[in-house]
Structures are given as C-alpha cells and as structure tokens.
Known about the structure:
Blueprint: H1 3-15, E1 22-30, E2 35-42, H2 48-64, E3 70-77, H3 82-86, E4 91-94, H4 97-106, H5 112-122, E5 123-124, E6 127-128, H6 130-143, H7 150-166, H8 169-190, H9 193-196, H10 202-212, E7 226-235, E8 241-246, E9 257-263, E10 266-277, E11 288-293, H11 301-304, E12 309-313
Parallel strand pairs: 2-3
Antiparallel strand pairs: 1-2, 1-4, 5-6, 7-8, 7-12, 8-11, 9-10, 9-12, 10-11
Amino acid sequence: MNTGSLLNAARLIAAGNLNGDVMAVAVGWQAAGATLKVAYYTDGPPTDDARALCELTAGELIAQFPDIASARTACLDGRGQAAALARLDGLVHHAHAGLALAARLARIGPMRPAWNAALDRWVNEEGILVTLLFGDLGAGFVANFDAFTPAQRAQWLDTIESAITTGPQAVGDAVATGFLEALHRHATRAGRWGDIAPLLGRASAAYLEAWFNLPPPPKSPAPAGIELAVHDIFRLADGTTVLACAAPPRGLPYLPAMATLYEAGQPRQAILLQSRRLLGRLHARAGECALDTRDTVDVSADQLRDGRWTLRLPA
C-alpha cells in the first residue's frame, strides 16, 4: 500500500464527510492484516451522525484501494484536545484549516522535528497561533533544504502556492505572512535564496516581490519527471474533473499521485490525480490520455487550448 496515496485520497474523501461536530479525522494503515484505521474526533460525545460519517469514509476508501482487507473505525470525544489532535499521525482533517494544511505539509520530507517543535511553541488549549507556526515551518524548510528531494521541494512549494491562490483567505494570509516571509528571511541569511527563489510559484514570488521589493526570480527549471501537454478539460456531474493530455512518452506513475499544473513554465496548482480513463470517441484525439481528479481545477477549456499548459508528474 502506498500510504501517501492513501492519505491524499482520505483527505479528499473526509472533506466530503463532515458535519459541525467533527474536529479532526485521522487515517492509518496496518500492513499486518492489511487493515485500514479511520478515527473521527468530535466536539463532545460522538453522535450517530458522526459515526455514520466515519463509516462512510472507511467504505469509500475500501472501494478505492483494493489492497484493504479489513477496516476498523472509531468515533471519539475530542473536546478540549485541539492541540493533541494536531499531533495525530495520519491527520487528514482538522477543524482549523491552517493547522490541517500545516500537518499535511509536515508529512513531506524531513520536516517532522520542525513540525513538532512548532506545535510545542504555538499550539495549545489556549489558542492556535497559526501564522507563527507557519513561520517556524518556513525556517525549517530552509534548514532542511538539502535533505529534501527535488520532488519534495516542488510538492511543498506547489502546495504553498495553491493555498495562496485557491485556499481560504485566512489560510492564504497565514501562509504568506508566516511561511513566505520567514522563508525569504532565513534563506537570505543562509545564502540560499538563489537556490529557492526559482522554485516559487507565480503568486508566491509576486507576494515577496511586492513585500520586499525584490527583483523577479528567474524562470523555474522543469523538475524531473513526466511532462504532458494539456489539451482540454471536462467537468462531470459527480464533481470529477478530467484533463485530456498528450500521451506520456513512457508509463505513468502509480495513481493516485500528486501532479502540478503549469502555465508557460510557471506552476499554477498542485493536483491529486486519482486515475486514468478512456475518452469517448467524440472527445478523444489520437495518442491522447485522460486523467481524473476530484480537486477543483481553476482553468477554463479556452485557456487550455492556447498550448501553454502542461501537467508534470513525478517519475
């Protein structure tokens, strides 16, 4: 089982199976016995509705991942435990959206010690200082820069870019003021800004250019992996978005997998690709493939037809 794919899918599925009582959702995988574990934490004693949502999330994951042989679900009282819930392994939802994003980022690469230290400083039962928490993560990203793989760096900064451009306003503000400003400050002090600046997305770079009066960074180099030209987009009634792409020069990686949508060489959005599908005869082109996502893709069919859009996947 690819646990990264499991957690990414669980994040999307859990987001559709929430009510006002749910404080956090955590998902785990036990290789021995091929067992899925899903836990919902509620603001007070669990209700029947919350239990039903927990079981629904488990059922949808079982349907998507055939490796799952059995599942265990739990619905628990999490009132007064916001800080403890932020430390859960496999956290895929937290009622505080900024904290949920930070927890997801902390799973990418060697950031767990920096994440734990930031939680100790800025998250407790009196409050969650999420901007300062993102500031610590920006410092940690610089300190651990050489320990990341190129794909992990791209995933971090693509996720930051997506939070600024498409996330809730409060989360985008915390990411910009906390993470990006700390990233620039610590990278400049460490003499690493020249390594990091070309990797930033367009909105991230524009924010720092305006805030610090910086020159624009050089064009981002294409990361290693598979690059597909994107020709068209279809939005289905069930919420699925289908991207029609040029056929890959070699086999696609195992799906689900994270990918990045680029416009004219600049990253626009991180996307979780769920599966590959066949296009109907009316839409298909010779040598074309179609990739599904449940994410909202902020681009129109007319924009895609200008030939400036590509999708990059890890090798």
